[in-house]
Design goal:
- With 235 residues, the chain is α+β, with helices and mostly antiparallel strands.
- The chain has 7 helices and 7 strands, in the order H-E-H-H-E-E-E-H-E-H-E-E-H-H.
- Helix 1 runs antiparallel to helix 4.
- Helices cover 29% and strands 22% of the residues.
- The radius of gyration is 20 Å and the shape is globular.
- The protein binds coenzyme A.
- The site of coenzyme A (COA) has 21 residues, from strand 4, helix 4 and helix 5.
- This is N-alpha-acetyltransferase 30.
- GO terms for molecular function: protein N-terminal-methionine acetyltransferase activity.
Length: 235
Amino acid sequence: MSNDDPEPLQSLSTTALSPSEVGKLIQTNPPNIEYVQYGISLEPKYLPQMRALIAKDLSEPYSIYVYRYFLYQWPELCFFAVDTTTEDKDLVAVVICKLEKHRGGPLRGYIAMLATKDAYRGKGLAKTLVSKAIDLMIVKDADEIALETEETNVAAMKLYESLGFLRSKKLHRYYLNGNSAYRLLLYLKPGVASMPLDEFYDPYGYGDLPPSAQDDPRYPSGQEDKDDLFSRGII
Ligand SMILES: CC(C)(COP(=O)(O)OP(=O)(O)OC[C@H]1O[C@@H](n2cnc3c(N)ncnc32)[C@H](O)[C@@H]1OP(=O)(O)O)[C@@H](O)C(=O)NCCC(=O)NCCS
């Protein structure tokens, strides 16, 4: 560019941030906390800690197969936070997700599990982890992101609604403890809500169930509500 050329135009809008830029704005970096993207090599050290944290805080019991279903197929969509002041960099918060086509329609990210240790809550760790997962799903061209949460879980509802998730459906007596859930959705592209689904695509949702759940007594063959079956928190 010669000295006579005009200065390149600056963006006229100061508010037009991309979704991932918005994500970075809400991510926090509290002292002594490090965020880590999961990888298979971290399984021996961190999978037991993830299981212990999630087993304590989530009402649904998840077998090792359910963790592996997610972590083997979508390791990069698991993020966790560690406390760097602990000798072994202990895990203090985690999010586990997946990303795949939903009934032959939109590419759907799914947030399966999220928890923060009691002593580390209120510091923005969960919101940061979810935001990192959302950022990566956007990079991977996701159309929408879904999850379920107990209707009584005020902290989770507020967290997700503050990120733009909307309540799409109430799922009565969804959890094993009898509690109902809301399905929350975040649309990432215009027109996704009206994207056609393939009615004949995997009508019972078995293709999306981890092997452990296919024999799970909670899913008696032929009696299930296929929509709820498909969207149970464990798949
Ligand atoms: C829900 C949970 C993961 C939040 O973890 P956290 O690290 O404390 O959350 P953050 O500090 O990132 O909070 C982010 C937002 O969530 C909301 N929030 C978090 N805790 C809240 C509480 N106790 N009451 C109301 N809102 C709360 C707030 O909107 C907060 O944003 P703000 O601080 O700007 O107001 C944590 O409470 C937890 O592990 N609960 C048990 C497991 C669980 O319910 N998991 C979710 C399953 S869907």
